[in-house]
Amino acid sequence: MPTPQQRRFQRQHQTVKPAPGARSVAGVPLPLQALAYLAVFAAAVAVYLPTLRHGFLINWDDPTYVVNNPLIRGWSRENLIEIFTKPYFSNFLPLHLVSYMVDYSLWGLNPFGYHLQSVILNGVNAALALLVTRRLFGDFTLAFLAALLYAVHPSHVEAVAWISIRKDLLSTTFLLLTVYFYLRATGSRSLDRGSYAASVAAFTLGLLSKVSIVALPLFLLLLDLLQTAGRRRLSWKAALANKIPYGLVGLMLVRLNMLAQAKGQTYAHDPANYLMVKGHAVWNYLALLTGLPPGRPIYDAPQFAPDLLPAVANLAGIVVLPAALWVAHRRGWRVMSLGAGWVFVLLLPAIFFPLVTYMADRYLYAPSLGFCWLLGAGIVWMGRRSGGIAVRAGVVAFLTAIPFAGFVYRTMEYCPVWAGSESLWSYALARSEDYRIRNNLAQARLDEKRWADAERLYREGSRFENYISHQGLAAVYYNTNRYAEAEREIERAVEIARKGGLASGKLADLEYARGQIYWVQSQPQKAIDAWEAALRANPRDERAPLTTVWVGVAESRLGNEEASQEAFRQAIEKYRRTGQPVTDAYFAIGTVELNRNNFLKAAEWYRLAYRESPHEAKVAFFLGRALARGGSPAEAMQLFKRIAEGEFSILSDSQFTMPDVYVQMGVAAQTLGHNQEAIGYWEEALRRAPDHPERDAILASIAALRRAAGH
């Protein structure tokens, strides 16, 4: 008869027993297995299909990682070297950027393609969750239920719907592959070296996607301690030794990212307060795992009163998962041991590092699988205690449907919030006092030209010292012709940014904006100084070619023709080197010549711009103006007619309106001697814009032509 110690050992080293009537994976027909994998993949994809209609989040990382990122715009040797050797946006995550290179190659800047890859990766991760769970516990029913619930878990919305959080999806893909290959490597009496090497390689790729999976070797060590029959038994020394490659890679990449990271957060300065904040976060994470509380894009860090009971309760959050692991281990509950261990290990970086956001839904993307193991095991256990096969199947189906339906509802309810900046920050504003929400919603209002709302929100955000609120106020004042106030705010933004050690890319943005404010106030030398400061701050900035163009324009204004031409030459080289259309450079040079009345030279530069961007209305319009005044009115008229017929798209930055097109058509017609036609075009311009800025001149021209015709 076994002793109590022997019985406990047997419980700890057994797998979850399949429910009566359920077959192990070896007994499940391959078509049924394939159907199960397809089902979890389809569920994970279907629930996020609405995100394919979402755009970029224009004021939350998407511009930095995708829209304005020159490194993803081509598979050049220079771009790849930059990605794999230098941090970007305070992180060294090269595979994250490579995934955007793939998207850009296929879709350009169409957000559909970027969302599509995220949705597909989510489906792949759900299928991998089934593969790993089946390998881990040996019960296909448990694996299928856990993976199905994981596929639709509402804590995943942020990671899937927000393009910039692709790193969580990618790192989880490699994390699951790491565990799968490790289980294969140690699943027999001898170590499978090929699978072990594949596991280490997958772990390395995962770290190159997001370094937060660095604690995974601790879970692999836990697997060694909770070995099942038939698995290779390892001594403590051997178990630790085979984690050394994981540890070395992890330490190296953590070090690289720590060097690139910004300073820690204010809540981390007091150790006791820090532990209470993180313990509070753990309790919130556990609540979010249930799917009951709605998600949030930003959570306010809690403020604690000096009371003993709340302090103890929050500090308990730090130890609740290790305690659950220990109790489950002592009781021989392997699924609970591994589930609690999985959640705890994968949350360790979020718990013990002072991240910018004290907690976030995305930090649960990988850890939530451990909770789904517990749900799946509970459902299997309840099914095992039921009656006949039909009853068991009904119980399992019913018990699965409850959390599945709840998760799907929460996920589909929350997804539309991430459709765009307006919906996201309006939702967040009602749930948080964080200054970043005010700034981001203000940016959305700014884009809609709702100046008063934007100013109010930025002013509210500026109560907490940050450069973004002042940069936003500068933009509001710039767009409402309050240039002195704009200059004051941009100076304050630069001061805060430099004091806080802001990343070079953001400092370049501020200096560029400062240059624009100086320029509009007719201070070309100050503008040049600011733009050159932007170029020094970040020579690889996506806007560097355009900044160089502006330097050339300003030098021309000062009469420094040699410096102006040199700046234009450098700008053209930068456009070509970064793979960006050189249209802006050609257009800027053409405009300089047009303002000097050098119409033939202006037409030459505008024609080069037109070849680069043959569908851009602004280029066609200004080329037409130069041609009309440079002796080619017939060619100009053809361009103007094509614009009027809608062949070109008139964008917000086109610098002209459709009435302006009819004004220029009138000028071209008059030059060609078609006076009645010219009168008709000018009258159409005034019909479309009765208060046109050139109204008096247009009326005078019409009157002159009519007098000449004897009317």
Oligomeric state as shown: single chain
Mean pLDDT: 88
Strand elements, count: 0
The 3D shape can be described as: elongated
% residues in beta strands:
under 5%
User: Over the alpha carbons, how many angstroms does the gyration radius reach?
Assistant: 31 Å
**Helicity level:** 55-70%
User: Can you summarize the main beta sheet?
Assistant: none
Given as residue ranges, the uncertain stretches (5+ residues, pLDDT < 50) are: 8-24
Structural class: mainly alpha
Question: What is the overall number of helices?
Answer: 34
Biased composition (Polar residues): 1-15
Organism: Eiseniibacteriota bacterium
Protein name: Tetratricopeptide repeat protein
TPR repeats: 508-541, 583-616, 659-692
Task: Describe this protein's structure.
- The protein is mostly helical.
- It has a domain at 29-261 and 269-416.
- The chain is built from 34 helices and no strands.
- The longest helix is centred in the first third of the chain and has 27 residues, at 111-137.
- The radius of gyration is 31 Å and the shape is elongated.
- Residues 1-22 are annotated as: Disordered.
- Residues 1-15 have a biased composition (Polar residues).
- The chain crosses the membrane at residues 30-49, 136-153, 159-183, 195-223, 308-328, 335-357, 363-382, 389-409.
- It comes from Eiseniibacteriota bacterium.
